[in-house]
Amino acid sequence: MPWLNHDLFAIYSDPISRLRCYFMKLTTKVALIFGGGATVMIMVTSFLIFTSTRSILKKNISAQQTISAVETIDKIDRIFNNYLLTLQTMGEEEDLERFLGGEKNIQPEINRRMRELTFLTGPWDILFVVDRNGTIILSTRADEVGKSIKQEPVSNIAYEKALEGGTYYSGMVTSEDAGKPTVIFAAPIKQESGKRIVEGVIIGNMSWPVISEALHTVSISAELDLYDAQSVLIATNRDDPANLFTRDQTVENDRQRYRGKQNSFTTIGEHAGDTEPYLITHAPSLGFLSYKGNGWLLIAKAPTRVVFGPATSIALRTTAFMVLLIILMIGLVSFLFIKIFVRPVVAMTNTAAAIAKGDLTKRVVGLSNDEIGTLGNEFNVMTETLIKDAAQISSISEELRKELNKSKALMESIGDGVVAIDRAWNIVLWNKTATAISGWSQGEALGKPFRDVVKFIRERDREENIMFIEEAMLHSKPFSMEGDTILIKKDGSEIPISDSAAPIIEHDGVVSGAIIIFRDASQEREAHRLHSDFAYASHQIRTPVAKALWMLESALDKENVQDIKGQVGKAYQAIQSVNKLSEELIEVSRIDQKQVAVEKDDVGLGDILSGIIKDMAIKAKDKDVALEIHSIPESMRITTSPALLKKILQALIENAIIYCKEKSTVDINAIIDNKELLIQVSNIGFGILGEDQPAVFTKFFRGKNIDTTAIAGAGLGLYIARGYAKILGGRIWFDSKGDKITFYVSLPIA
């Protein structure tokens, strides 16, 4: 320092006094600088601790309110779905069809079943059965029997909709029977056989307190208001709602402002009439399974003064503690600095500089007997220690190098792909497993932008899926990717993967990048798929089995032989459908596990089609459909598996008959083009919705644009046909234009 020189030391006669005078001046200047800096640091630190703590707590509280609101609206959707499914199941019971057909002796059993619905779904205000003439013939309220449904306009709408053959549910309405708020559900009662004509309708008015109770059981301390599609307040957990069943313009304005935002979100703001800011969560109804939602909106609302009060209190206490701790540390450091004097500045500085350059022979000389002398002596001891430790440092460096090599070897031996990226998303680490999974070598990947090498996409919409990596770096915590993600490899092939990302956090808390770990999830997906297939198949089998048991049980109560035969015949048909489904599931299992045996032979296409047409004659006649084969000479032959080819064509022709309009034609054509046999099966049906087309060849697919409840099968035919076509080296596809649908099968000739 410029003010420290030999002239200044010369005015003092006593060396010790000169040294202490110097340190007094030095300490005074350092104390002034240090004290001012410490004050600024305390203020800045206090502010940062307070704001960051309060911000984190706010985010957690907002997330908790959002989750609770979403769970509540989902619970309401599930309640409505349960009501709808139960009423639909009741409408499919044969006893109701028989009662509408004139068997009045089973009325007590039907009344008992209607009473049991309360235990299956929850309470109903009223249930009643209406025949095709619009007359109420059964009801949980005796005074309703005999009335015309047309006298009740709201219920009549439900009746007319269900009479068309589908289920129906209304928005929140006022019950014409009970005078209470309700949602009306309706389901058709169809003939068990034949053309499934609607014989009547079962209608139910749910008990509205079920919805109010769902709002009162929420754990968060917030106002919950449920609005319908017209922004009318229809339910709330408030004890004294002043505007119940009235339209809220503020909510309607919010709907317009956030139009297009489908997911739930939380904001801080004020609604009209509010005197303070609120934490407001908008949770729209998204529906559940059969229940598609009514456009309802759940709003959770809590004063920020209440919900963020604890957060502010915790932040203030945390800040006060940290400030006190910093002050104590600064005081302690200042005390130690003032208390302990270092060695003579010039000698110690020169000696330290020489040692720093590698000259370990230098020592501090001219030591006194006070604290500074002691420090100088310790400095010399430290130098001696450095000499002794030099060899140890070299040894430690070698050990560190070995450990680093071990770490690299460990990284390369990990069974998952491991990739590290920096803040600019450039790849800085790439292990061997990542190469094995993706096809990109380490040399090709390192230094490249992550998105140029690793392509994660969602299987359902083919959109890029890297949000979990961005969230990991943004929120400084690990995130997992969505479950339907696939990786596009270097060669363009695709594999399902499971993946997660974790932030790379430096010692100062700054996120400098991320570690992405991924693995081949093919086996996991396959296990999940098998579980889903089993669950769906169990559901498909349960209905005909239950029906067969019901028919056999009913037959035991019959005395007339013809009645017994009729019931047993229906039970036989139900068991036959179970047998068909079982055979299809076995075929699906063999296809999935690649256990299908292929025995090829010279096959005449005309012979196979003739046999299939003969087998399908009865089904075609029942549907009043003509089967026509065009342009297939007897000489058209190929070398393939006769059994698999027959099953492919049988599935396509049967599918064409089932989904063909009555009194129309199923056309079958075949040509040989470019050493391939191309078979076409066309019909005039109902078309395939654009949204359904990607799923046509998947398991258990049934179109949404027609009523499939009367169609036997589980939707496995086209999946099996596609599987066999692939096994034979061919492919299968379709073309849907308006009402005309054409399925194509292309197979190699030899």
Tell me briefly what this model is.
The chain has 750 residues and is of the alpha+beta class.
Largest sheet report: 7 strands, antiparallel
Distance between the termini: 96 Å
What portion of residues belong to β-strands? 15-25%
CATH architecture type of the largest domain: 2-Layer Sandwich
Structural class comes to alpha+beta
How many domains, as an integer? 5
Shape: flat
CATH superfamily of the largest domain: PAS domain
Radius of gyration: 40 Å
Helix content: 40-55%
CATH top level label of the largest domain: Alpha Beta
State the helix count: 20
Report the uncertain regions. 1-20
Average pLDDT for all residues: 76
Give me the CATH fold name of the largest domain.
Beta-Lactamase
What's the total count of β strands?
A: 24
Description:
The chain folds into 5 domains: 18-123 and 207-334, PAS domain (Beta-Lactamase), CATH 3.30.450; 340-404, Helicase, Ruva Protein, domain 3, CATH 1.10.8; 414-520, 2-Layer Sandwich (Beta-Lactamase); 526-592, Helix Hairpins (Orthogonal Bundle), CATH 1.10.287; 601-748, Heat Shock Protein 90. The longest helix has 77 residues, at 15-91. Helices cover 48% and strands 21% of the residues. With 750 residues, the chain is of the alpha+beta class. Helix 2 (15-91) runs antiparallel to helix 4, helix 16 packs antiparallel against helix 17 and helix 18 (605-622) packs parallel to helix 19 (642-658). The radius of gyration is 40 Å and the shape is flat. Strand 3 (168-174) and strand 4 (181-190) form a beta hairpin. Mean pLDDT is 76; it is low at 1-20.
